[in-house]
Specification:
The structure holds two protein chains of two kinds. Chain A is of the alpha/beta class. Chain A has a single domain, classed as 3-Layer(aba) Sandwich (Rossmann fold), CATH 3.40.50.300. Helices cover 31% and strands 29% of the residues of chain A. In chain A, strands 6-7-8-3-9-10 form a six-stranded mixed β-sheet, with helices on both faces. Chain A has a four-stranded antiparallel β-sheet with strand order 2-1-4-5, covered by helices on one side. In chain A, strands 11-12 form a two-stranded antiparallel ribbon. Chain A is globular and about 55 Å long. The relative contact order of chain A is 0.18. Chain B has one domain: Orthogonal Bundle (ABC transporter involved in vitamin B12 uptake, BtuC). Chain B is an all-alpha fold. In chain B, α2 crosses α3 and α5 runs antiparallel to α6. Chain B has 14 helices and no strands. The chains are: A alpha/beta, B mainly alpha. Chains A and B meet through α2, β6 and α3 of A and α8, α9 and α10 of B.
């Protein structure tokens, strides 16, 4: 299972947000997407997720153009967790997961019987949701809500998970546990995560893609990236490279 | 207990509807009247009150459903058929059907034109909000209020311009204030069939409405064709509104109150919510229609006035709760 952006361009007004971008995520790898604000990270993820249509270029799912695949089938392949996930209705975690499990089933005109499947135990366990199942979303902490949201996206077993800054509103402890979890998920799914914290990416990613003005400035292994001056150029900063327990740690200054 | 509650509500609503009026039998007298068709009061109840109570229930069910769909599809707790232009649009269509001689029976032209008005007005509100770049809940309601005012003026103009001696202006006017007429059995059968269809089509929207609550982007990613689904939901809600308006006139606020209470009682999942809204709307309107007959006998208070008296403070209560949240 591979999702590929091939020479994708997209304009917002007069600004070229994505500029002939090539990008691929594949199963078995945790790919981190980094880059400055406005470099096109969220837009690239939305195009992959099928939420935005590219102006030029193609989205390929296992080599097939995505626009030849129905939205319903596409939903089975690609799960998308937006940056600002909010449920308008105050659902219980159980109801949210049940909705997530219905991913990719068509909505007919007549009420169909929803199969009353048990919640996937691996998802409940992975995200440590068992004690929260009957709680309403409004009663959860930010970290718990983020876990429930991610679990809902993965509950329907999409091959690919695209997560836009899932660590953004979390404290450092939850950031690390979320990244560990995404790493575990990457064993079974293709996982692409947008992160702002370069060090989280360096520590957990199998592959890092650096976006700069809508183009990929780098795609490769974290250790390779740390050896180059690409991040310094893209962020217009001088990073000091420190030796950490899990590899190189960057300090901006 | 959970399953018994809707049945209890319906029975209570129907009992109130049957008992209230210029003549008010006690429970024993009511039971006797229902059991003995030869009883003169039984005749009154069976042939005069019962069809009207059933019609009130069916209209109420439609208003509850339409409100739940509009609130769900716009993710707007203040959405309802009246504030979004759908019911005022239906009323314009219905006024044309009532006032203009058309080459089809009124039993048919009334719901058809009411539907055309409801659907057109809903899309006018949606289209104008989009043109204006409005994305928030309050903005959509403001557009709805503006369109509703325009349609109300148009309706009054139609009444003034088109009514003559052949049309009983009094009856048309009282219809615009909301009120259930006692229907014939065939008419009631048609209303029942349309309401049953409404329930089925509305329940078909349940999962899509649930998913839309997660945001357009997540819903799209989960496989909901968001634009097409919105069009379908508006079509169904407008049709349900049209049926309710064609048979009940302009009865406001039921579509606002009932889904809210249903959500407080049973949570926001739409499959249950739509059911509870239909049942709650039916029970509420049967009782309210009885009250409309009972308050100032032998005169009747227009049903729409009565629901507004209860509904407007409820609307303010919702605003107040939101303001404090």
């Amino acid at each position: 299972m591979t999702v590929t952006l091939h020479q994708v361009s997209l304009r917002r007004g007069s600004r070229l947000v994505l500029d002939r971008l090539d990008l691929a995520v594949a199963r078995g790898r945790l790919t981190c997407l980094v880059g400055p604000n406005g470099s096109g990270k969220s837009t690239a993820v939305k195009v992959m997720a099928g939420v935005l249509a590219p102006a030029a270029g193609a989205v390929l799912i296992d080599g097939r153009p995505a626009d030849e695949i129905s939205p319903v089938e596409r939903a089975r392949h690609i799960g998308y967790l937006p940056q600002d996930f909010v449920s308008h209705w105050d659902l219980t975690v159980r109801a949210l997961l049940a909705l997530g499990m219905a991913r990719g089933s068509a909505i007919g005109w007549l009420p169909g019987r929803m199969p009353d499947l048990p919640l996937p135990p691996t998802v409940v366990a992975d995200f440590d949701l068992a004690p929260l199942l009957d709680r309403r979303l409004s009663t959860l902490s930010g970290g718990e809500r983020a876990r429930a949201a991610c679990a809902a996206v993965i509950a329907g077993q999409p091959d690919t998970l695209l997560a836009d800054e899932p660590t953004a509103s979390l404290d450092i402890g939850h950031q690390i546990s979320t990244m560990r979890l995404l790493r575990r998920l990457a064993a079974r799914h293709a996982v692409l995560v947008v992160v702002h914290d370069i060090n989280l990416a360096l520590r957990f990613a199998d592959e890092i893609i650096v976006l700069d003005q809508g183009r990929a400035a780098f795609a490769g292994a974290p250790a390779t990236l740390a050896d180059t001056d690409i991040l310094d150029r893209v962020f217009a900063l001088r990073f000091t490279r420190l030796a950490g327990p899990d590899g190189v740690v960057l300090s901006a200054g | 207990m959970r399953a018994a509650l809707p049945v209890l509500l319906l029975v209570a609503g129907a009992a109130l509807g049957l008992a209230l009026g210029a003549e008010m039998p006690g429970p024993a007298a009511l039971a006797r009247a229902l059991a003995d068709a030869g009883d003169p009061f039984g005749q009154l109840v069976l042939h005069w009150r019962l069809p009207r109570v059933l019609a009130a229930g069916l209209v109420g069910a439609g208003l509850g459903l339409a409100g739940a769909i509009f609130q769900g599809v716009f993710r707007n707790p203040l959405a309802e058929p009246y504030l979004l232009g759908s019911a005022p649009g239906a009323a314009v269509g219905a006024a044309v059907a009532l006032l203009v001689p058309l080459p089809m029976p009124q039993m048919l032209s009334l719901p058809v034109l009411a539907f055309a008005g409801a659907w057109g007005a809903s899309w006018a509100v949606i289209g104008l909000s989009r043109l204006a770049g409005i994305v928030d809940a309050a903005g959509l309601l403001l557009v709805g209020i503006a369109i509703s005012a325009l349609l109300g003026a148009l309706r009054s103009l139609l009444l003034l311009a088109l009514s003559d001696e052949t049309v009983n202006l009094q009856s048309v006017l009282s219809w615009t204030l909301g009120g259930i007429q006692t229907p014939g059995w065939a008419d009631l059968g048609l209303l029942a069939a349309l309401t049953a269809g409404s329930v089925i089509l509305a329940l078909g929207l349940a999962r899509g409405l649930d998913l839309l609550g997660l945001g357009d982007e997540v819903a799209a990613n989960m496989g909901v064709p968001v634009g097409r689904f919105l069009a379908r939901a508006v079509l169904i809600a407008a049709a349900i509104t049209a049926v309710a308006v064609a048979w009940g006139g302009l009865v406001g606020f039921v579509g606002l109150i009932v889904p809210h209470v249903a959500r407080w009682i049973g949570g926001p999942d739409h499959r249950g919510l739509l059911w509870r809204s239909a049942v709650g709307g039916a029970a509420l309107l049967m009782a309210m229609d009885g009250l409309a007959r009972a308050v100032l006998p032998p005169a009747e208070i227009p049903l729409g006035l009565l629901t507004a008296v209860i509904g407007a403070p409820f609307f303010l209560l919702i605003l107040w709760r939101r303001g404090r949240a």
